[in-house]
Amino acid sequence: MATFPYAAEFPVDPEIIYLNHAGVGPWPKRTQDAVTAFACENVSRGAARYLDWMAVEAGLKARLAAFINAAGPDDIALLKNTSEGLSMVAAGLPLRAGDNVVLADQEFPSNRIPWEALASRGVEVRVARLDVEDPEAALIRQLDERTRVLAVSAVQYATGLRMDLARLGAAARANGTLFCVDAIQQLGALCFDMQAVQADVVVADAHKWLLAPEGTALFCTRADARAAIAPTQFGWHMVEHAGDFSRRDWQPAQSARRYESGSPNMLGIHALSASLSFFEEAGMQEIEQRVLANAGYLAGRIAALPGWSLVSRRDAARFCSGIVTVRHASGEHGALYRQLRSQGVVCIERGGGIRLSPHAWLDEGQLARAVDCFARLAGC
């Protein structure tokens, strides 16, 4: 594959090979520049240009709406993290005893605990196993007339299993069930179209594949979903007439701003705005192609080494994502992980093995160095 024209945006220490974008991704150089400029402005001018900052915030919402093909910027709120967004959905829906929520058994705690916390209200959590031939069918079989929410990650964090969201969205819509997608392991790595998959809610932190700082997350809700999800946090910013501080009567904003209770994270907004421009310029189709090629290279090369096998399902292209998890026959993944880190391979233990998550900016030379590190591990 040709050299990625934006590789210079990532002057990562040459002593390391960064394969943990499913954890916390490094920023592009432009994001460092944006954060530095914003900090300098705060030191020299304070909030003298706050109206300009608000314009950046509004522009970011419009661009995020376009990025995921939402209906428009009114559907976009900017929260702290994925857990906050999913908790708002779980707590804000009028769920009653006897209702149920359908989940997958491989979900990250952020997309499990908020739903399990509804047990005190008599809400059942139904869990489908994904280690079957047809994981989407396993989820769909759990739906019935009392299923109020189907909550699923677009890509499973530990194994990289990529879900057929369009199929799940169609089933949820036919069942009258709200479809809530945790897209944190897809946005920035793979193309995403909210309309095509018929998602009602999309939540994603920006600090992984979107290559922005922690503390800023996308929270997108369709208008009809907002009508069902009551705000659970309150303050000056979430009301319809925000800024009219002397007004005594109030109501939640009609837009997704109803979920933004207080002052926005302007530093994070400027940073995410800069990071998003990288994806807009490079093009998500190009990025997806490179992410999948890089993940495929690692999967093929490491699985061919003695003692190593794949945890990630790669028997069909549709299951593949930017995440590759590999397992060693020794089972000593803690020790193997520490050896890899000592050799400069930034990865993580997940899913009963070693999880690798290469972004588009890595080249084959860096990936080959990582494979060599795997080959040098004790027992290989």
For the structure shown, list the relevant keywords:
about 375 residues; alpha/beta; Aspartate Aminotransferase, domain 1; Aspartate Aminotransferase, domain 2; 2 domains; seven-stranded mixed sheet; four-stranded antiparallel sheet; 12 helices
What report would you give on this structure?
- There is one protein chain.
- The protein is α/β, with parallel strands linked by helices and 380 residues long.
- It has two domains: 7-27 and 283-376, Aspartate Aminotransferase, domain 1 (Alpha-Beta Complex), CATH 3.90.1150.10; 31-281, Type I PLP-dependent aspartate aminotransferase-like (Major domain) (Aspartate Aminotransferase, domain 2, 3-Layer(aba) Sandwich).
- It is 36% helix and 14% strand.
- It has twelve helices and 13 strands.
- The protein has helices at 29-45, 50-68, 82-92, 113-116, 135-140, 165-175, 194-197, 223-228, 266-282, 284-303, 333-342, 364-376, and strands at residues 17-18, 76-79, 100-104, 124-128, 147-153, 178-182, 201-205, 217-221, 308-310, 324-328, 345-346, 348-350, 353-356.
- β3, α4 (113-116) and β4 (124-128) form a beta-alpha-beta unit.
- α2 (50-68) crosses α9.
- The radius of gyration is 21 Å and the shape is globular.
